[in-house]
Fold this protein.
Amino acid sequence: MAILVTGGAGYIGSHTVLTLLERGDDVVVIDNLSNSSQTSLDRVAELAGKAPIVYIADVLNNDVLKTIFSNHNITDVIHFAGLKSVSESIKEPLAYYDNNVTGTLVLLREMLAAGVKHFIFSSSATVYGNPESVPLSEQSPTGGTTNPYGTSKFMVEQILADFSRAQPDFRITCLRYFNPVGAHPSGRIGEDPNGIPNNLVPYISQVAIGKLESVSVYGNDYPTPDGTGVRDYIHVMDLATGHLAALDCQEKGAAYKVINLGTGIGYSVLNLIAAFEKAAQTRINYKIVARRPGDIAECWSDPSLARKELGWQAIYNLDEMIRDTWNWQKNNPDGYHV
């Protein structure tokens, strides 16, 4: 028996593959390495003392999927593969719908043909769009997405809900993550953005190590304690254990589940900068600039359903998240590109 992890060389995928291997699961990975690296999987094997079976291929390639399902006794699929930059999705919407939506359809068809009926989908809090109130629970309104990336995740959730009604013996869990940060405590695997990072934490990290000059803080006049935007950040290792908990609870409760993975705590941009200054023992230069259109004041999760349904909760605090981010950054200043 084995677990198929699509996008297993990526940031969240690699940490989840490591966690699965460490508990004794057999893992098969499919990844086209378009925004990830083979090195991450080499290091996962080194840390786990056991390697996943790896297929360098696209989830849109149904011939490779057929081979995987016929050659390996796959019992569960965790689907991370996809494009993930909000800003890029605005410029390249067709690529996002093709990869994120069509890729999922191809995968589901091959699962159906192979009789594999356990599916965990890597969704996102972007499905909530611009929330009217916080914290966000699974019952909060969805669909008012503000970019093609978020829309692609919302569309897949709709497809999975319809598919679940048509195939009631399938067990499907959509995990809506908030803002993944951090790295494995070893400092051997972590987030390796291509080019200038799109996300705040890796951006601050590159300022801390001197690769970038300063952080732009978009607005300090929000109705928040220090005027800067507040978000729910979650350690990537907490996300990895959340996937294992979801895997273990597939047969319990409803056939189709939607569950938030967050800490339930909001941290501001200035909180993050202060935590980095503490971890890196250096001053982080930042400048206050105008708000960005579409940005919201605050967004954090209500994680109580994950506690109830999965018996899971996040355990890392902000200082630990930033400590592990910095440990990865200082040990790998150029990411996986040595």
